[in-house]
Design a protein that fits this description.
It is a single chain. The protein starts with a helix and ends in a 12-residue tail after the last helix. The protein contains 11 helices and no strands. Helix 4 runs antiparallel to helix 5 and helix 6 crosses helix 9. About 80% of the residues lie in helices and about 0% in strands. It is mostly helical.
């Protein structure tokens, strides 16, 4: 499937979904509306709310704060995940010692950690960043760890036969092997970084997209809640596109898939 056709299909899915939403929220069927606007709003009202936010400039402050929190959580969590993942993969004894503790910390509900981070770090951005880091770190860590562990022993043996030292093996064998796994995790962790920031804002903040959604929910403004979620979704897609551009730059050696050539 070619890129333009794929994009057209994706847009068609969104248009059909929104049209059905508008239809079921405004046209009575069998004597009643299936999606009452009081509970589900309508795409027209949601779009009007988004336009109002951007036209009045209300949303820019909140977007910048959420962006800053998300980027910090994403960068810090990803960096720690890559470093610790490489370290554990190259040091099996260390990995074996800390394995139960890593699993134990990963099993902790992040929503429970949010109030603790707020207590420790206050209502500023760092409590939201900390929450995002806990979400991003483990996704990147497990993928990088597995990526390094999955390096072919044949490739390693060939590298050693050619006289590569540990530093050269790391650069030319381990790192390229882990990159594919790492970027796969980064696409997932982008969303989790934003989720961490927004959940933290929702639970306690004076600004941010999570704060906007919480405020709209508090006054039963369903259109505002959906508008916040749509803006948040577009926000994540834009950040993910940035990760894709970096991925294409760093993985130029990787052959294109057959699907991408269609």
């Amino acid at each position: 499937m070619s890129r333009p056709v794929l994009l057209l299909c994706q847009i068609a899915v969104a248009v059909i979904a929104l049209a059905l939403w508008q239809f079921f929220a405004t046209v009575p069927l069998f004597g009643k509306v299936l999606l009452p606007p009081f509970f589900f709003s309508t795409p027209v009202d949601v779009f009007s709310q988004i336009v109002k936010w951007f036209s009045t400039g209300t949303i820019w402050k909140h977007l910048v704060i959420t962006l800053w929190e998300s980027v910090l959580a994403f960068v810090i969590g990803s960096a720690l995940g890559v470093i610790v993942g490489f370290w554990f993969a190259r040091q099996p004894r260390i990995a074996a010692i800390f394995d139960p503790y890593v699993k134990m910390v990963n099993a902790l509900p992040r929503v429970v950690l949010a109030p603790i981070f707020t207590l420790w770090l206050g209502l500023g951005i760092w409590s939201k960043v900390a929450l995002g880091v806990t979400l991003v770190f483990f996704i990147v860590f497990f993928n990088v760890y597995q990526g390094v562990k999955e390096v072919s022993t044949t490739v390693l043996d060939n590298g050693r036969m050619l006289g590569m030292n540990d530093r050269q093996l790391m650069r030319h064998v381990y790192w390229p092997s882990a990159l594919s796994w790492m970027f796969s995790s980064l696409h997932t962790s982008v969303g989790f970084a934003v989720v961490g920031a927004v959940v933290g804002e929702y639970l306690g903040s004076a600004a941010g997209l999570g704060y906007l959604i919480q405020q709209a929910e508090g006054i039963f403004d369903v259109a505002g809640v959906f508008a916040g979620m749509f803006v948040l979704s577009a926000f994540v897609i834009l950040i993910d596109y940035g990760v894709t551009l970096v991925e294409r730059r760093l993985l130029v050696w990787r052959p294109a898939s057959s699907e991408g050539r269609g």
